[in-house]
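Why this split exists: single-chain examples teach little about how molecules sit against one another. For that reason, every record in the complexes split bundles all components of an assembly together and asks for one structure covering all of them. Below is a record exactly as it appears in the raw files.
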Amino acid sequence: MSWLPTLITANVEEGFDLAIKLSRMGVKKTQPDDEVRAKLRPIYENDADSLTNVSHVIATNFQTVAAANNYWR
Amino acid sequence: MSWLPTLITANVEEGFDLAIKLSRMGVKKTQPDDEVRAKLRPIYENDADSLTNVSHVIATNFQTVAAANNYWR
Amino acid sequence: MSWLPTLITANVEEGFDLAIKLSRMGVKKTQPDDEVRAKLRPIYENDADSLTNVSHVIATNFQTVAAANNYWR
Amino acid sequence: MSWLPTLITANVEEGFDLAIKLSRMGVKKTQPDDEVRAKLRPIYENDADSLTNVSHVIATNFQTVAAANNYWR
Amino acid sequence: MSWLPTLITANVEEGFDLAIKLSRMGVKKTQPDDEVRAKLRPIYENDADSLTNVSHVIATNFQTVAAANNYWR
Amino acid sequence: MSWLPTLITANVEEGFDLAIKLSRMGVKKTQPDDEVRAKLRPIYENDADSLTNVSHVIATNFQTVAAANNYWR
């Protein structure tokens, strides 16, 4: 089973969750080691600018997911 | 009730407010601890570059919301 | 009266001005204190990279405004 | 005469030049003082990362100009 | 054989993998020396902000690949 | 002869190469001095984050080139 079978979601909130997943997978595919990522987590989770940057990546992926779903109109 | 039931808003200003909400939720979903976020707030709220970056995330999300609403034409 | 009644502008230059306004409102909605923002202004206004970043936010918002106006074709 | 009468250009290269102009105007509208900008110029002109960031803003504005011109197809 | 014969992929997951490939090729075309890139890898792979930035580039390329594939609808 | 006569390319790979060219021209138009750029090259070519940022600019320009070519479908 693919971790990303489709960009279509039942509703807007699930679409936002998918954008978060895509953002995390962009990291995971670059740094596949779970332990390293776990060690890095408290760093960006406690840094205001890091969190803003994470939110920017989510926003970029949400553009894709929203367009794929015709904005759930 | 979903925190994000729709991308459709009554007018442009509400669309901009929704873009702000999406930007904040991108942070909140990454750092769910209210206390930590409250501690970080005065840091980015008093840093010119941090505020510019926050505005960039809002602009990215506003692109999505505006497209969803056909630009309120 | 809304500060953002419409994305439609009479011409391209007014559209660029609206993009600037949206960029500033993204900051103002995050840091509503006029005094704090006034204190931060000389910092980013005298920093080359800060100004480039501000211009990036304007460019992102201008994409939205230009699309809304069908590029004033 | 407006500094930005139209987004339509005669060809692709002029469109790229317009994207550069938009990027600079984003800076100029934020820092209107010619002397200050002249003082900042050697800073970002001699910094690799600053130049990359400037190129990113130009790329963002070029997306807008190219779409406005239907990609000069 | 081209390293990039098409943007069309069989499914969404392969599209995301192509976005990763495009992001890496953007680096490789700028720094073609395999040894240098190998030396830089542990740096960004162990830095939270670097990984977020890599994920941002992937998200940008994924927008292109997803649009090319009509979002695999 | 223009350095940028068209955004149309024969295939996807040439489109990616054009995106690289656009990214470099964004730098060159800002810093036209060949010697200065040559001096800056080893800096960003040996910095992981700089290379990621360059790849981001390429990705942004590739969005434009890909759209211009209807994604070479």
